[in-house]
Amino acid sequence: MDSPKRGEIYRNENEDKLLSKWNDFLYNIVNGPITWFRETIVEPNRKEYYWYHRQYRRVPTVDQCYTDDGVCEYEADQQFFRDKQVDATIAQILKRRFENCLTYELEDQTPCYPLYDKWQEALTNYFIKYGELGHYQASRYAYMKQKHRMIWERRYGPVGSGMTRIDQELD
């Protein structure tokens, strides 16, 4: 056997095995009840939430409510406001991703173009649904705006293509 060098502690293999068994024993004494409690009591009784935010039940939209049903219209307005917040947050996240891409890609910014397109599409969709509704926004006004847009597109084609009637284009 080699003699231990200065500063080294000499142990034989039996002492190492005994020490590792002692460490395992102490670990199981402390961790065993904790692991048992978690696996048999906590985890079976845990409710799994797959979303980090509260999920609301989808309620009937304002076009499905009766005209004199105030509660239904109130619920539709609340859902409209929640949807508006979600759409605004989506647009903000896409803007932040685009700006982070510009910061990261200083020389070649071509990888950022798809993010810019998605951000502009989200802004366009947000404006189509919620833009120009005025100060008092409600689901009924958004529904009427959607209805008027559909009538316009039926008569003249997509918005922004001019005011030539579709039936006049055939001439």
Automatic annotation (TrEMBL):
GO cellular component: mitochondrial inner membrane; respiratory chain complex I
Protein name per Swiss-Prot or TrEMBL: NADH dehydrogenase [ubiquinone] 1 beta subcomplex subunit 10
Transmembrane regions: none
Family per similarity comment: Belongs to the complex I NDUFB10 subunit family.
Topological category with respect to the lipid bilayer: Peripheral membrane protein
Any single Pfam family the record assigns to this protein: NDUFB10
InterPro entries, A to Z: NADH_UbQ_OxRdtase_su10, NDUFB10
Domain of life: Eukaryota
Keyword Transport applies: yes
Keyword Mitochondrion: yes
Localization of this protein: Mitochondrion inner membrane
Keywords: Electron transport, Membrane, Mitochondrion, Mitochondrion inner membrane, Respiratory chain, Transport
